[in-house]
Design brief:
The chain is an alpha/beta fold. The protein has twelve helices and 14 strands. The protein folds into three domains: about 80 residues, Orthogonal Bundle (Arc Repressor Mutant, subunit A), CATH 1.10.10.10; about 90 residues, 3-Layer(aba) Sandwich (D-Maltodextrin-Binding Protein, domain 2), CATH 3.40.190.10; about 100 residues, 3-Layer(aba) Sandwich (D-Maltodextrin-Binding Protein, domain 2), CATH 3.40.190. It has a five-stranded mixed β-sheet. A five-stranded mixed β-sheet has the order 11-10-12-9-13.
Length: about 300
């Protein structure tokens, strides 16, 4: 099918090339061989009168014309997907669709089990693919690499709709054999202990808390261990005098299996608000609407 002399099938190839900036990976993304994708690129170059992808050393870079095509091409394809290819009525009991969710290990541990239980009861044919948050989650959402994003409120994009999913408090965690903290956790204890912290790919989790802590108290915590996980922090204080500031639900789960003690923080830690976000062009997708409503319903129960 052609529109203004452009073979519309080439839009899918173009979207993959713009996202991957590599012919082989783009071909894998849309299930085309490398020769077929090279041919598609040649036809696109002829249509646009532009190289689109240009060699720079061992890499391919997008030309200014190609950079300007990223958002409009993605939006066209997402509009087609949400308004034309998806059926107007969604029956969860009969559906076999798979949804991709971007989320943290914290959300995976405390929210996903309840969501999967609800899905099993209401829509056994629905599949879920969980992916860890990257350093560019909004970009992944805009490129169509994820259906839903679960992320702290301070990181949501104002360009796409979102709703509050659930809130979380924090607790401090120490080993039962901690030689410093026995009967009471004071603010001085908190400052003097070595800290175990989460430090994701983006550094946002650690940076957000430490930035707030520095702004609030004018001092830095003494970080001795950082790890790309929140769920494992309670285990990392065992056998040491270190301390971790952990999401409350994770801390309570860990207390059931580890020799640890939980403390109310000796300072007022801001509440964490987790939000559910989706692409603005998918707002009317009946399947995604149903999935959002299920997630929001589950979020009220955990």
């Amino acid at each position: 099918m052609r529109f203004n002399k452009l073979d519309l099938n080439l839009l899918v190839a173009l979207d993959a090339l713009l996202a991957e900036r590599n012919i082989s990976r783009a071909g894998e993304r849309v299930h085309l061989s490398q020769p077929a994708m090279s041919n598609a690129l040649a036809r696109l170059r002829e249509y646009f009168g532009d190289e689109l992808l240009a060699a720079q050393g061992r890499q391919m870079v997008l030309t200014p014309r190609a950079l300007g095509l990223i958002e409009p091409v993605r939006e066209v394809l997402m509009r087609i997907d949400s308004t034309i290819t998806n059926p107007p009525v969604f029956d969860p009991a009969k559906a076999t669709r798979t949804f991709v969710l971007l989320l943290s290990d914290f959300t995976t541990a405390v929210f996903v089990p309840a969501m999967l239980e609800a899905l099993y009861k209401e829509a056994r044919g629905i599949g879920i693919e969980l992916r860890m948050l990257s350093d560019r989650p909004i970009e992944q959402l805009e490129q169509g690499d994820a259906d839903l994003l679960i992320i702290p409120a301070q990181y949501v994009s104002p360009d796409h709709p979102s709703e509050a999913l659930f809130e979380e408090q924090y607790l401090c965690v120490t080993w039962l054999g901690n030689s410093r903290i026995k009967e009471e956790l004071t603010f001085n204890d908190y400052l003097e202990c070595g800290h175990v912290v989460a430090n994701y790919a983006t550094g946002q989790q650690r940076a957000a808390f430490d930035s707030w802590f520095l702004d609030r108290f004018g001092i830095k915590r003494h970080v001795e261990v950082s790890a790309p996980t929140m769920a494992a922090l309670p285990r990392m204080v065992v056998g040491t005098d270190r301390i971790a500031t952990v999401h409350k639900r994770l801390a309570i789960q860990a207390e059931a299996i580890l020799p640890i003690r939980l403390w109310e923080p000796p300072l007022e830690v801001p509440t964490l608000e987790q939000k559910l976000q989706w692409h603005r062009h998918r707002d009317a997708d009946p399947a995604l609407t149903w999935m959002r409503e299920l997630a929001l319903r589950v979020g009220k129960t955990i």
